[in-house]
């Protein structure tokens, strides 16, 4: 039988047999007294060795042979940093190629193998050490992995920290972990924790111990130099535009930014907001305050900033949701597969929205002029309210779901509260005509209307009339025009920046809106065809689009500073809008690929 490796050379069974015989012969020869030309003294005990055989495995002995050192000339090497028993064990393993490692001697052999630079034994020790990793051995293995710069063991330790994070926190075993490693664990999507409270408390605990160590180091240095230790250190990181020193972010600040502080509990955030470390760390204080505001006064629904995204191992799946008649479908963004949620009682679902982390759908029931609003709870749909209107679309903002009827131009605000529902109509004073789309923007809702009911107007001449509903005063104002069609307009945001995308492919940024009317700044054209867009959102710097025209995602490029790349799905069927939502992973049953919603 012949084996061929990349067609470079052939190894036959005969050659393998000959090679094994040569190795065995060399091993036996090196045991003969007349070829033992190297004496190794280990803490008073002498071993007879062969230079060639030792240099074959050990870069340490190879280096001695190459250099004009006294050991090379005298034929004697003295070792003091290992025991005779350990060196004898190494010799036996090199001669027999058998594993003689135990839990008791592995670390000593690993240390000696690193000093003697024996890759074969280093790998052998590391394979065993990987199986020994536990809460009891974690500190020892972690420190040795860094001491010997063992990439394989450090990778294993990082995986262990992510998997056993809660147990390590409970046993206070992060105090000696280096900042860079702890930061990598905190920001990892693979971190396995029940809730983010555990992570935030671990961050502050680590920062406490780091601060104590820094204080002790400063005191020791000041005693040596007879200088008073500083009560507050100012680390600068270059200069600001005005020439003033820019304060370098603290380690506590960097760790908090790497966490998902937006999903920590209100109790935890309130507790940490009183922590003494925040008294001298302005940036960390701002992060905790941001978490507190987001936790208690959140006004944007269906958008989760990076600091509020659940981790991949949290049991939460982020999905894009759309509806078609009775069917409500969810796209798992991680696996890129579609699944149908339980059937919605609405005959013709027109719009979906996310309000207070719950999914709502609205549409007509039969041939009536009334629409039904449903909420998705505990894997089923429950009726919330009956709304006047036949062709309703929704925007969630603050304490309300705002509904706009395309036919009647009527606007209502709906506030579901438990088993009761508050609903009120917002007077438009006849200003709103032909509404087609709406977006949540700062403290306002912007509604885009067709400028004419004549569908024969040239597409390149279409202009959307923009109205602004200021909240919470419910005051209307005319905000000018947007060059492009109002129909099939979709919006998305990235941080505090708001964008709209028109069906002709033109991308605009919306700015202003606090004290003056919003302005629309053209960015670029993403495509040059007409596409009946359903929805768009950004998740982890990827723009997810749902349209009606078959095109390849590879044809759509990212926009620097807005999104890195595009994922595009399409269907020729009459689907509703497309929104970002999250569901427990157990909600997904049998997953299938729906031919009517295709990824390009």
Automatic annotation (TrEMBL):
InterPro entries named in the record = BACK, BTB/POZ_dom, Gal_Oxase/kelch_b-propeller, Kelch-typ_b-propeller, SKP1/BTB/POZ_sf
Q: Which PROSITE patterns match?
A: BTB (PS50097)
Q: Has keyword Chloroplast? A: no
SUPFAM superfamilies in the record: Galactose oxidase, central domain, POZ domain
Zinc is among the record's keywords: no
Keyword annotations for this protein, in alphabetical order, are: Kelch repeat, Repeat
Q: Name one Pfam family in it.
A: BACK
Compositional bias segments (type: Basic and acidic residues): 229-240
From the UniProt entry, list the residue stretches annotated as the region Disordered: 213-244
Database matches in Gene3D superfamilies? 1.25.40.420, Kelch-type beta propeller, Potassium Channel Kv1.1, Chain A
Start and end residues of each BTB domain? 36-103
This protein is called Uncharacterized protein LOC129923099
Organism whose genome encodes this protein: Biomphalaria glabrata (Bloodfluke planorb)
Corresponding gene?
A: LOC129923099
């Amino acid at each position: 039988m012949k084996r061929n490796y990349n067609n470079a050379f052939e190894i036959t069974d005969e050659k393998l047999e000959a090679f094994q015989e040569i190795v065995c012969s060399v091993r036996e020869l090196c045991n003969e007294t007349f070829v033992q030309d190297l004496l190794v003294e280990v803490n008073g005990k002498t071993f007879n060795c062969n230079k060639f055989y030792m240099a074959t495995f050990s870069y340490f002995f190879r280096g001695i042979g190459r250099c004009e050192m006294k050991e090379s000339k005298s034929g004697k090497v003295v070792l003091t940093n290992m025991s005779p028993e350990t060196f004898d064990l190494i010799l036996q393993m090199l001669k027999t190629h058998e594993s003689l490692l135990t839990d008791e001697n592995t670390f000593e052999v690993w240390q000696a193998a690193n000093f003697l630079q024996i890759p074969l034994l280093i790998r052998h020790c590391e394979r065993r050490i990987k199986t020994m990793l536990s809460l009891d051995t974690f500190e020892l293995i972690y420190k040795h992995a860094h001491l010997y710069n063992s990439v394989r063991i450090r990778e294993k330790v990082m995986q262990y920290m992510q998997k056993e994070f809660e147990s390590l926190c409970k046993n206070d075993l992060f105090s000696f972990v280096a900042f860079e490693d702890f930061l990598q664990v905190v920001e990892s999507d693979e971190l396995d924790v029940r809730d983010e409270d555990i992570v935030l408390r671990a961050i502050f605990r680590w920062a406490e111990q780091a601060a104590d160590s820094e204080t002790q180091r400063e005191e020791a240095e000041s005693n040596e130099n007879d200088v008073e230790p500083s009560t507050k250190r100012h680390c600068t990181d270059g200069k600001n535009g005005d020439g003033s020193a820019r304060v370098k972010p603290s380690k506590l600040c960097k760790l908090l930014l790497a966490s998902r502080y937006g999903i920590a509990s209100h109790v935890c955030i309130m507790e940490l907001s009183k922590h003494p470390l925040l008294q001298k760390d302005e940036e960390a204080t701002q992060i905790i305050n941001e978490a507190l505001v987001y936790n208690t006064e959140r006004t944007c629904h269906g958008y989760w900033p990076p600091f509020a995204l659940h981790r991949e191992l949290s049991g939460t799946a982020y999905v894009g949701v759309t509806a078609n008649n009775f069917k409500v479908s969810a796209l798992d963004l991680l696996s890129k597969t579609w699944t149908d949620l339980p059937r919605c009682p609405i005959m013709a679902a027109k719009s979906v929205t996310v309000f207070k982390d719950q999914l709502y759908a609205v549409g007509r029931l039969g041939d009536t002029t009334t629409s039904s609003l449903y909420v998705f709870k505990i894997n089923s749909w429950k009726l919330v309210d009956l709304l006047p209107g036949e062709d309703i679309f929704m925007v969630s903002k603050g304490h309300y779901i705002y509904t706009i009827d395309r036919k009647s131009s009527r606007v209502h605000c709906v506030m579901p509260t438990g088993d009761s529902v508050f609903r009120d109509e917002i007077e438009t004073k006849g200003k709103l005509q032909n509404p087609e789309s709406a977006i949540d923007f700062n403290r306002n809702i912007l509604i885009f209307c067709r400028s004419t009911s004549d569908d024969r107007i040239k597409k390149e001449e279409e202009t959307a009339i923009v109205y602004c509903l200021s909240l919470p005063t419910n005051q209307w104002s005319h905000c000018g025009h947007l060059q492009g069609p109002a129909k099939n307009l979709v919006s998305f945001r990235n941080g505090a920046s708001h964008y709209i995308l028109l069906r002709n492919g033109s991308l605009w940024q919306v700015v202003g809106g606090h004290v003056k009317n919003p302005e629309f700044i053209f960015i670029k054209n993403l495509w040059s065809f007409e596409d009946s867009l359903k929805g768009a959102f950004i998740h982890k710097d990827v723009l997810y689009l749902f349209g009606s025209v078959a095109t390849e995602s590879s044809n759509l490029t990212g926009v620097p500073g807005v999104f890195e790349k595009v994922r595009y799905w399409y269907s020729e069927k009459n689907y509703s809008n497309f929104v970002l939502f999250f569901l427990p992973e157990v909600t997904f049953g049998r997953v299938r690929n729906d031919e009517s919603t295709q990824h390009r």
